[in-house]
Amino acid sequence: MSETPIPSDTAADINSATSASRERLLAEVAALSSLPGVYRYFDAQDQVLYVGKARNLKKRVSSYFHKDHGGTRIGHMISRIARMETTVVRTEAEALLLENNLIKTLNPKFNILFRDDKSYPYLKLVSHPFPRVAYYRGAVDRKHTYFGPYPGAWAVKESILLLQKAFRLRTCEDTVFANRSRPCLLYQIRRCSGPCVGLISPADYARDVAHAERFLRGDAEEVIATLQAQMMDYADALEYERAAEVRNQISALSRVLHQQSVEESSLSARDRDVDILAVRVQGGRACVNLAMVRGGRHLGDRAYFPAHVEDATSLSADEAEERAEAMSVEQQVLEAFIAQHYLSVAPPPALVLSHAVEASLLEALSEQTDIRISAQHQPREQRRVWLEMAEKGAEIALARLLAEEGSQRERTRALVDALDLAVPDLDAFRIECFDISHTAGESTLASCVVYQNHAMRNNEYRRFNIEGVTGGDDYAAMRQVLTRRYAKLAEAMAAPDAPSAGTVNTAVRGQRLPDLVLVDGGRGQVSMAREVFTELGLDLSLIVGVEKGEGRKVGLEELVFANGREKSYLGHDSAALMLVAQIRDEAHRFAITGMRARRASVRTGGSRLEEIAGVGPKKRARLLQRFGGVRGVTAASVDDLASVDGISHELAETIYRALH
Q1: Same domain for 354 and 436
Q2: 0.85 surpassed by pTM
Q3: How many angstroms separate the Cα of 296 from the Cα of each of 72, 209, 217, 224?
């Protein structure tokens, strides 16, 4: 593709504007305060490039503009700075908090970024005369008792099973508990003491709950000692059956403790709650492996893979003048994880680290969380064993990631080569895939999934509820979803003030047109997509349809093109076809799960309660809990509805009329 030369007058205007922008930046730098603060750099498209903190704002920011950084990464970043923002704070701790909140919010290109893919799970003891133990994920409150967080769902479920074996606590929902007439199977297999039908007194059940809480807090040996004393008391009172029950409880608890890799008796009080952090860097990627010890029990580990490691570490190396000595990449990654992770998750009082971190970081974090945090990076005894386990886990997780990314990158390259696409940056290659899903025309829904940087970008997935089309008309549904997805983007790109208007890879208002648009379907769907793109003035070469092959067999798919190019068969063992099938299947999965949820809501009347005037979230929750769901509410009489707390007789009649 030939490039159009820029007229000399235009080039002069661009250089003049750049010079004026740089002079304005230098003037702003000269006027900066010498107090602690946070600074942010933006490019010409107003995208954030970097967020940093400094003890002395003026000194730190000036170092970027008053040094010759040449062709380094930091030099490349500085050449892109169009404007900056700064915020002065009172202390370095406040700067730490603000910096990492902004990093998570703004996703700057030159910062190490750890994504919060999901919240941590907890073990929850639900407040009740007979408390139940449950798996929980979300914000904690003071109404119930929570233990954790745990590194993963399996650790919570394993702990729940442990409590069932040793203390026989119930796990059933309160609505089930309130309506039992005989004990369930869990009672028969000795996983529950049967409080639902009065087979254990409230006092005895409360004692089991107290023992379970003490066990989860790491006092297992004390719990066993208490149970042994209780067993002897029963024996002395000639209550041999009850003594035998306590004996069995002790045996179950002892077996559980024996299965743990860490012996409770060998741990000091300081080792009851510890996080172990090990970092490994290889091939431009990094892994931080977090292992958790709570109540003296090793709960497992969880691996994190930060983004922007190469750019961020190259940039951070220039900031060594504010430190006593230069930091290794591992140290930079570890500090970034500690700063970002523990501002949203309560830290334990002790950290065991594979590399040393600055004392000021721990002090600032302690000030923000009101927890005095100590760190150790050359541990001994049990802590050394934990650290070695975490380091090995980091090595394995990083090796697996590199292998998967290598394979996925080769798939991306194979697809680009097979379609003969001009892609300057393979890592930025972006695919959006669309699929339509419905059941006999009911609850039609379209999905859009995104593939970029050799991975599916789950946070950019979108669903579109299709309305105003004939049920089962997939072509009309495809027209609607493509128009809704790209109309505003095409309009913004065609605007006179848009940078490089008409260029498909230009960022516009934080969005960009993909390099490839896949539609799940053959010539019909591709024809519809071609009509939409023609109306919007977009490049038809972007559209590719995935047509099922003979007999609709997997591996025989053919690619259909909107620009008149002949159909293409990539081969059943082609890496390019594997990638296309992966993306197509993900779009289908995302569409069908959304369609099923929408259909279920329509069929069960899930939204009908929400539409009734006077029935807010609390009353709706009471109704659903009392009657076990929307169908139970629908089957209830007016008098039954009026018996629910907060539901007057008039409101009960309104609800009854709305549901019938």
Answers
A1: no
A2: no
A3: 47, 19, 8, 15
